[in-house]
């Protein structure tokens, strides 16, 4: 009797030229070509949670590059960072940035007396304001409308995650493109 051994596709001979070609392709995809520096978008530190402004010019993200967990804003057109005095407080973690149309308003998550709160930073006035001081329970994942009037977030005040919409009111200065018209708010019946 003759013994027959089945040959599976994994047992076929490897073509070394294919292996070297794949290794060359993968080697050329390394991150060694990414510019690293104090004014470049990428660094050797962790960058995460990106958010793009409505006009596509500004990028907000969380970075650990300066030794603390902070929100940075990068101007993609000028390829430089935007100064945001008053946004990142010492000894405080800032997370989940969301930018309005021109990046004037930044809704984000921070902590107040050890609990997470939704805050709003105005780049024009360079001031931050806590938007959820009275919410009991946890909040997370804030977002801001392109015009800056509405802020949405998740809250666990009822024992489950629900969505809240916060209306900043009709009298705020909206973040709209130059020359755009704004319709008046609808009146109640």
From TrEMBL:
Pfam families: PD40. InterPro entries: 6-blade_b-propeller_TolB-like, WD40. Belongs to the TolB family. This is TolB family protein. It comes from Calothrix parietina FACHB-288.
């Amino acid at each position: 009797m003759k013994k027959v051994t089945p040959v599976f596709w994994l047992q076929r001979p490897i073509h070394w030229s294919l292996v070297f070609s794949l290794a060359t392709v993968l080697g050329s995809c390394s991150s060694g070509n990414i510019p690293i520096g104090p004014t470049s978008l990428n660094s050797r530190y962790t960058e995460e949670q990106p958010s793009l402004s409505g006009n596509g010019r500004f990028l907000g993200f969380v970075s650990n590059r300066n030794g603390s967990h902070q929100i940075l804003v990068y101007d993609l057109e000028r390829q430089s960072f935007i100064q945001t005095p008053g946004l990142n407080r010492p000894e405080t973690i800032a997370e989940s940035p969301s930018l309005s149309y021109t990046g004037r308003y930044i809704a984000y998550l921070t902590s107040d007396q050890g609990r997470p709160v939704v805050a709003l930073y105005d780049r024009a006035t360079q001031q931050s304001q806590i938007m959820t001081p009275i919410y009991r329970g946890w909040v997370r994942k804030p977002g801001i409308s392109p015009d800056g009037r509405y802020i949405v977030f998740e809250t666990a005040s009822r024992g489950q995650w629900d969505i809240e919409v916060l209306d900043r009111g009709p009298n705020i200065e909206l973040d709209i493109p130059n020359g755009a018209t704004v319709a008046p708010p609808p009146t109640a019946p």
